Amino acid sequence: MKLKRTVTIVAIAPLFLALFASPVSANQVTNLGKCDRRGEVAVANGIEYKCSISGASLKWKKTGNKVASTSTTSSSSTSAYKNVSGKISIDGSSTVAPLTGVAAEAFQKISQTQITVGISGTGGGFSRFCKGETDISNASRPIKSSEAAECAKNGIKYTEMIVANDALTVVINPKNDWAACLTTGELKKIWDAGSKVTRWNQVRSSFPNSKLVLYGAGTDSGTFDYFTEAINGKAQQSRKDFNPTEDDNVTVNGVRRSSGAMGYYGLSYYLENTDINKAVKIDSGKGCVEPSAENVINGTYKPLGRPLFIYVKHASVKSNAAMLPFLTYYKENLQTLAKKAQFVQLSTSQIATLNSELEILKKLV
């Protein structure tokens, strides 16, 4: 028996679109071998399968649940988009890709639009965007001054839009019972460029003499930029002897396998893996604070609470009839999608700003 993936979006990394899969959505994949995201659910012949850890990798495993395959697409607000057509090119952050990707997939199902979603990383996405190669750029950090200058040089005007919030989460092995809370100073001591910390008792003398194994975001990632700037004081200022990866599953599994491991990634990944990774509370000077949606919104989770962005090219809004309908659909469904994906939803003021930005884009047409 084979499972078929029914994702219609043309995506460089369709694995991210599965983030929002539920049993009733009949999300499907091509085989019963390796899968891409823990917790992803698929259905074949009415039987549910779940992406689960098997050894050092992820594989499909039968849950045994019988599921009726039905569509989750609501028809109440889709008729306005049925005649929308065109092509939209999106690239950038792998952190933001699940959110933009599922909106793109859903929009394709109710329109005649073709949307590609790439994951070249925030920096790679801006490189393409500022060359005029893409219409929208996903970003897990604000655009840098050098990137903005490149866009300006090439005549690329854009609008920055915050679409969700995130809490970069520092994680340790569940067997680690000593590092429940770390100060930002201790994190800097561990992660800063030139750090010689290789054992936990070098972080704090009361910690055990256990080997410290580090996992983190790849160096082209916006997550890497944000973490290093927030903790070490400068973007990309980091020790080099850690395990860098663009795939957060590698960090999840690395931390799971080693009692002395530490890593970091976005909150949504942690909430999927609370049984095999443990979050570290962060003390930035006012006591230990856990990563959570509430603490990001109330501003107490510092300095690792962050907004997530999309950047929209003005010329594309003017020339591509599919852009505004897609952005409108994205905005209208954003809070539901963010909640389901376990991103931190927008605050009231952020929603008001997003609405204003969309109205400004509408005036370009």
Topology:
Layout: E1 10-11, E2 41-44, E3 47-54, E4 57-66, E5 85-92, H1 97-110, E6 112-117, H2 121-129, E7 136-139, H3 145-153, E8 158-167, E9 169-172, E10 181-183, H4 184-191, E11 213-217, H5 222-232, E12 243-245, H6 248-257, E13 261-265, H7 267-272, E14 278-279, E15 281-283, E16 288-289, H8 293-297, E17 305-313, H9 314-319, H10 323-340, H11 348-362
Parallel strand pairs: 1-6, 5-6, 5-7, 10-15, 11-12, 11-13
Antiparallel strand pairs: 2-3, 3-4, 7-17, 8-17, 9-13, 9-14, 15-16
Helix pairs in contact: 1-10, 10-11
Q: Please summarize the sheet with the most strands.
A: 6 strands, mixed
Low-confidence stretches: 1-30, 67-76
CATH class membership of the largest domain: Alpha Beta
Q: Count the domains.
A: 3
Quick one: how many beta strands?
Answer: 17
Q: Tally the helices: what do you get?
A: 11
Shape: globular
Radius of gyration: 21 Å
Fill in the CATH topology of the largest domain.
D-Maltodextrin-Binding Protein, domain 2
Query: How are strands sequenced across the largest beta sheet?
Result: 1-6-5-7-17-8
Task: Give the name of the CATH superfamily of the largest domain.
Answer: Periplasmic binding protein-like II
Secondary structure category: alpha/beta
Oligomer: single chain
Helix-strand sequence? EEEEEHEHEHEEEHEHEHEHEEEHEHHH
Q: What's the end-to-end separation, in Å? A: 50 Å
User: How confident is the prediction overall: mean pLDDT?
Assistant: 84
CATH architecture assignment name of the largest domain: 3-Layer(aba) Sandwich
Beta-strand fraction estimate: 15-25%
Q: What portion of residues is helical?
A: 25-40%
